[in-house]
Structure formats: C-alpha cells, structure tokens
Specification:
The protein is α/β, with parallel strands linked by helices and about 270 residues long. The chain has ten helices and ten strands.
C-alpha cells in the first residue's frame, strides 16, 4: 500500500502532504559546525546544505561523526560552535516538524509499552503530554501502523518483537507525527531484507510527498543506490552532493583510507 490519496488511508496521505511550503522548499543549512567531547573533536568545521525533498544519506567510517551530526542537527548533543538553520529560523525552533528515530541500541526495549502505545507517542507533540488522543490521532496512528504492515501486532509488547518489526513500529510512529523532516540513525542495522525494502519504499514515498529524509547509513553495498544525495564525513566534511557525483573511488579513499571491504558503484 502506498501513501497516496488513492489509498484506503487518505487521512495519512493528507497529513503527509500538508506542510509549510515556504520552509519545506528550503534546505537545512549547516554552517561551521563543531562538536567536541572532552578532548575528542567529533565534528570539525562542517558546512553543508541538506536539500529538501530528497533522501539524504550520511556516510563515513566508524567514528566519523555521522550520528553526532544527526544529533547536533536536532539539538540532542551539545554543539561547540556553528549554526543549523531551516529557512529563516534555527532548526531547533522548528523541532515540532521533525521526526527522529534513534539507533535501536539506544532504546529501552524493556519499557512496558505495546506497539500501539509506541505509535501513539508520535502524536504527543500535536496533542501535548498527558492529554487524551483525539479520534484523528488514533486514525493516523492506525493508518501508519497499517502502512508498515504491523497492525496484527498492535497489542504486542514492543520488547517481544524482532529487530525488523521494532524498526517498522518506530517508522510508523514517525509517520504519525505529520513531520516535514524525517531523521533516522542507522535504521538498517539488525533488520531483515524485507523490512529494509519497506523502509526504502516509504522513504521514497515521503520524498515524493515533498518531505526531507536524512539517514545515517554505514553500508556502502547495495543499499547505497537508493539515496539521492550523500554527505560523506570523516570528522570533517569530505564531500556532499548528488550520489552519482559524490560516490567516486577518490571520495571513498579520502573518507575511508582505502579500507573498504565492499564498494558497489551503483548506477
């Protein structure tokens, strides 16, 4: 099932198509961003533009600062200096329009919540904490859960699911947020091929609806061909731009130092 107005869930399609067009068409501008953890320089003078309505991959070797950049964009890690703006305002002032899915390893899977509870949590920025969820919120959550193929697990404790199933549930939560920017940190780690295909399918649907999708990805294999735009890091910015222009042997050598186990120059 696609997220389209022809789907059985037009409410979800409408929610994903509604946006502040003046901002959505603007790139996210990162300017001279520095992040330091005690004596370790995690990011150094990173200046990059994240284009709107594109599937953007952040790649680089281990310790390159990929997740740090994503967290810095969302004010989830302290920034030493630099700015992040979206349109004419700091991105941090617009986080109600951003959906974020962290690495699975950073989530407490023992928390006593059902699949339905987790997806509904995506509505709290619209409804406020400790408020009753409206009929519209419940319908959006149900549509998002159906879109990722997890309706039958609605009442299952989240900790009892497989890695791929858990990732689908958190994708559903993100969809229910009615966001304009979607950020995912290593979403393909520990998931099956079918779930990976579902994730990419929905990512492309989101970009076709005018949404920006930013994904931290460690894999230089087959999955890399799905990205429209790449940001290559190794503490500093190595390269950024359309995938076909960026994904070159020279860029990979600069970023990884020639220690890549597998590299597929996908068309």
């Amino acid at each position: 099932m696609n997220i389209s107005t022809a789907s059985p869930y037009p409410l979800l399609a409408n929610a994903l198509s509604q946006a502040d067009s003046a901002t959505v068409v603007a790139p996210i501008q990162v300017n001279q961003l520095n992040v330091r953890y005690r004596e370790v320089q995690a990011l150094q003078e990173v200046t990059v533009s994240i284009p709107p309505a594109r599937l953007v991959g952040i790649i680089g070797p281990n310790g390159a600062g990929k997740s740090t950049l994503l967290k810095a964009l969302l004010d989830l890690t302290p920034v030493s200096s630099g700015t992040v703006r979206w349109g004419d305002r700091p991105l941090v002032d617009q986080l109600d329009r951003v959906a974020y899915v962290p690495q699975r390893s950073q989530i407490d899977w023992t928390y006593p919540a059902t699949v339905w509870d987790v997806v509904l949590m995506g509505r709290t920025r619209k409804t406020g904490w400790f408020q009753r969820f409206s009929a519209t919120s419940r319908q959006l959550a149900a549509a998002a859960l159906e879109r990722v193929g997890m309706t039958q697990f609605r009442d299952r404790p989240i900790g009892q699911l497989s890695g791929g199933q858990q990732q689908r549930v958190f994708l559903a939560r993100a969809l229910a947020q009615e966001a304009d920017v979607f950020c995912f940190d290593e979403p393909f780690v520990g998931v099956d091929q079918k779930t990976q295909a579902v994730l990419f399918e929905i990512f492309h649907e989101l970009t076709h609806a005018g949404k920006t999708v930013v994904v931290v990805n460690h894999d230089l294999g087959e999955s890399i061909k799905h990205f429209d735009h790449l940001i290559v890091l190794n503490t500093e910015l190595v390269a950024a731009g359309p995938r076909k222009h960026v994904l070159t042997p020279e860029t990979i050598e600069r970023a990884y130092g020639g220690h890549v186990m597998f590299f597929n120059q996908a068309a």
